[in-house]
Amino acid sequence: MKQLVLLGGGYGNMRVLLRLLPNQLPDDVTVTLIDRNPYHCLKTEYYALAAGTISDKEVRVTFPEHKNLSIRYGNISKIDTDNQQIVLDHGESVPYDDLIVGLGCEDKYHNVPGADEYTYSIQSIHQSRATYEKLSNLPSGSVVGIVGAGLSGIELASELRESRSDLKIKLFDRGARILPAFPERLSNYVQKWFDANGVEVVSNSNITKVEPSMLYNHEDTIPVDVCVWTAGIQPVEVVRSMNTERGSSGRLVVTTHHNLPDDEHVYIVGDCAELPFAPSAQLAEEQAEQIVKVLLMRWKNETLPEQMPKIKLKGFMGSLGKKQGFAYLADRTVTGRIARLLKSGVLWMYKYHNG
């Protein structure tokens, strides 16, 4: 029996399971999924969990069941590609014939002193729960600093504003305008929402130091009661410690077939893979579609195409609370209620197909 091991139950590996099970998995292949959580987590919704506008249960999806699928729970301490095995933190080792690494990311602090020690995070469900507890217990009038005005920072700031109208929220953005890579109309819409709802956007910021109740922006000191960090990501440490080629972002270089250049049995999916796109759930799912095709061809000893089709992303969607949103789809900007309904519909469909 061949053993396919999936590291991480995120968006990429969930799509792998959706495509292989129940009918495409060969009879001579078993699948082992290793994750520290007993459920798939909707990471794109962690901002709402941290803000307190949805419950913990709403970001959990049950893993699928199949006679050839087994699930192991635990933290991974080493990916041993030389011996084709995964070592868990309690000493157990899991052998593999083929491996898909989809362990996601963690915060990148850019060597800012105090950032890793004195900020809260929404990169994992455990961290999001801790962030929710801290934010929900703040007294009225407290100041919340959110460092990083990408999609996560924007959604957290807007959702927190709806959850806690009594808080002062400061969103620190390195750029001159919100979401500078997208049309100015979209940026203006998000900025106007923040202006109308009392969220202060601090443009052209550069956080140089973090203390327990203070942020240092350039030469200015800004008192805050809580700081949440959403200013960059990197592959998790166990992936960063793998002895293989990396790109400029620190992610692992992969071939056109999504495996390591020197190991056709190790595939990298999602936030850990060096690709010409920003990491996203959509990108991980598109990668997973191609990885399944490659696996099935290799298992059948079929010749792979020299190049896989170029991945085409449909765009992105973001929310501004529960009633407004923004989207960039097929080179078109959509804002307002329609954009929010689109995002809610996509989430509902995802839960329907995976739940």
UniProtKB/TrEMBL annotation:
> Does Flavoprotein appear among the keywords?
yes
One GO molecular-function annotation for this sequence? NAD(P)H dehydrogenase (quinone) activity
Q: Could you tell me the Gene Ontology terms of the biological process aspect for this record?
A: aerobic electron transport chain
Name the needed cofactors.
FAD
Domain called FAD/NAD(P)-binding: residue spans = 3-281
* Record key words, sorted: FAD, Flavoprotein, Oxidoreductase
Protein family membership: Belongs to the NADH dehydrogenase family.
Protein name per its UniProtKB record: NADH dehydrogenase
